[in-house]
Amino acid sequence: FVRVGFVVGERNLYLSVAGYSWLYHTGYFRLRRYITSKSQRTRWQLRAMQTLHIIVLVFHTLKSLHRSTEWQNEITLFQSGLKVCPANGKVFYNLAKVTPDSQRNLTKLLYHESVRLAPDFEHALNNLGNLYRVEGNLKTSVYLLSRAVKINPEFAAAHMNLGVALMKSGQFEEARNHYDRGLELRYPYPDCVYNLGILHLKTNSVEEAEQAFRLGVSWEHELSHLNLIILLDNSQRLQEARDVALLGVEKFPLRSDFRFHLANLYGQMEDYTSAETEYKAALGLEIKSTYLLNLGVLYHRWGKIDSAREAYTNLLRIDPGNQKAQMYLARISKRT
Question: Coil, strand, or helix at residue 137?
Answer without folding.
Answer: coil
